[in-house]
Amino acid sequence: MKHLGYLAYLISLSPVIGADNLPVGTWVRREAQEGVHITMKVEAAGAGLKLTYTISGGQTPVNQVLTVLTQLDGKDAPTMMDGKPTGQTMAIRSIDGRHTEGVVKFQGKQISTSKSEISPDGKVLKIENTAPGADGKPAVTVEYWDRK
Prior knowledge:
By secondary structure, this protein is mainly β. It is built from 1 helix and 10 strands; from the N terminus they run H-E-E-E-E-E-E-E-E-E-E.
């Protein structure tokens, strides 16, 4: 279950990608957990985007790859870990040129939400994730990603 919680956390970072002025490219998450390194590659994929996260370090013995193919329309998109279905979906919706929101579900049940904002200069992504904390109450975490 711990693995699923971490996976949900990673997926919840994806809503930042919907920003119209967010350049396709590679982003690096500022270290929030000791020894865990995450990069996010954003690629155009038809009318949508393909998000590829590479996770290394921490309790991950080898690099793990998480992918999401989204149309940025707010509809559920399946997530894959190392090419296999995870049971989770991500619904990403673009709000405007700098803001998006998303919902992560596991087996159809909502487990987290996210709001994201790209800096005016396009170099920093700020993501606010809301998910149940250890006490069961909503807990907000903030992540920052830098354009590589």
